[in-house]
Automatic annotation (TrEMBL), chain A:
The chain crosses the membrane at residues 9-30, 66-90, 102-126, 138-156, 177-198, 234-256. Keywords: Cell membrane, Membrane, Transmembrane, Transmembrane helix, Transport. This is N-Acetyl-D-glucosamine ABC transport system, permease protein 2. PANTHER family: ABC TRANSPORTER PERMEASE PROTEIN MG189-RELATED (PTHR43744:SF12), ABC TRANSPORTER PERMEASE PROTEIN MG189-RELATED-RELATED (PTHR43744). Belongs to the binding-protein-dependent transport system permease family. Gene3D superfamilies: MetI-like. CDD domains: TM_PBP2 (cd06261). GO terms for biological process: transmembrane transport. Its main location: membrane. Residues 67-256 form the ABC transmembrane type-1 domain. Coiled coil: none annotated. GO terms for cellular component: plasma membrane.
TrEMBL record, chain B:
This is N-Acetyl-D-glucosamine ABC transport system, permease protein 1. The chain crosses the membrane at residues 20-44, 86-106, 118-139, 165-190, 211-236, 275-293. It comes from Thermobrachium celere DSM 8682. Its main location: membrane. Belongs to the binding-protein-dependent transport system permease family. It is found in: Cell membrane. Residues 81-294 form the ABC transmembrane type-1 domain.
Amino acid sequence: MGKRILKVLFYLLVIGYAIISIGPFLWSVITSLKPTSEINNLAIDFSKLSFKNYVFLWKKFPFARWMFNSIWVALVVTFGNLLFNSMAGYALARIEFPGKKALFLAILAFMMVPGQVVMVPTFILLTKLGWVNTYKGLTIPFLTSLFGIFLMRQFFLSIPKSLEESAMIDGLSRFGIFFRIVLPLARPALTTQFILMFTGNWNSFLWPSLLATSDKMYTLPVGLNSFYGQYFQFWDQVLAGVMILSIPSIIIFLIFQKNFIKGIATTGMKE
Amino acid sequence: MSSKKGTLSRVKTREKIDGWLFVMPFVISTLVFFAGPLVVAFILSFKEYSFLDQNTIWQAKWVGFDNYINAFKDPIFKRALLNTTLYSLGVVPIQLVIALILALIVDSDIKGKTFFRVAYYIPTVTSTVAVSVMFMFIFKTDGLLNKFLKLFGIPPYNWFGDVRLALPSIMGMAIWSSVGLYMIIFLAGLQDIPHSLYEAAWIDGANKWQQFWYVTLPLLRPTFFFNLVVSLIGTFQVFDQAYVVSGGNGGPLNSTMTVVLYLYRTGFRDFKMGYACAIAFILFAIIFILTLIQKKLFGEETQYQ
């Protein structure tokens, strides 16, 4: 009997936190489908729900443009990171070259420096290059990541060398080995990186808010913040904007979630 | 024999070149966009420089430690430091405890495990801007939260508009939105603990609670350390939520002013860029010291080799 009560309490906790966790999304979705006059109404009148707020944002405000900017910037940055981080991580794990140890120590040291420390000089540099308010400025400085390289290195250290060695005996070059043998093996780690990099960049706010100065170049988070600043009374529309920003990254996560959890275990991220 | 030796040395040279080719994109990008700016930021932190000045960074006036000294005399900076510290002290422990409990839940053999893993993680993949706006809707004076609290006879509060409540509200929001990340890392740590250890403990007559206390917790130490460091560093860099909630000004009455928000404002709104760099290095020093202290406290379990 006591065990049963405990079980019921346990499930109450489990379900209770799930409600806390996804409740705000559900409430926001419902509100985004309501007309403005209904937003403070707790009751839901299903006959009044519609997608007209989404259509309105899409047609009357540059949400489509912001969406395009976000997708483009996130894709370029993510693929740059996947390629360059795994190349560097691989070299640090497998290839003997002079300066390797110093390079790795530099990565560990730099990882402790918060990114905001370089904000001012990087902004000045990008201004001098004429890259502020361009796609170049929003992507090129972010194509590699110290943390990403660290994760890839840990992953490559954990997989057996034998396949690479036999490929080397067969006369494959390092680049051949890397692209044909190592990268396919690295799929779990790459999936983890993909999710971390894509959602991280998709959601990034501080840098884009500095580097995108006209609303044509805004990414969705910057755009939503500015939209909210002007139309905060129209919660139905603002929350439709929230959904336009959040749903893509949630979908990406749902697609890859199975491999993501596995990937975190294999990349040794917890150490 | 000699030709074999020649091949070997050629292979070794090839390896050295390949190694550098592989790290080259990273090295160039880090030099240009990180290491270089880091040096410039350090120099700038001893100078008085504005972006709008006609002179270059090198010509800018050298002011020694003035920027650093001024920071500790600046009431808004001190407030920002206090807010950020309170934020971190509040968020980190609560976040990690909830994350551990959730990880234990989704690691146990409950029904619908995948659903709960996903449900608990979803706030983490959501943009902090989206989360902030969503919470402002739910926390507004006539919003869902106040209506819910009214059922228990609690009067309505203006959560984000009240000097005493704004920061705690942001803290609650931050805990809610990042708990998933730490849960997933704890989960990976839990799954690494060999099953045989639990069996051995069970044979020795340890109950579930004792197994948790004597097997799970000690073996989770490295994971815990990792989470603690990441969480502390992350909380000291809080910006997005404070910016969105206060419209960028850290209000009401600087109650949501954080170190990074203040750095952003001094650097890019007041264009006091030397001062902003000094603030950045103070932040760096704090994070650095905190990391070292934790390393001392939690030992050297974190090994990179």
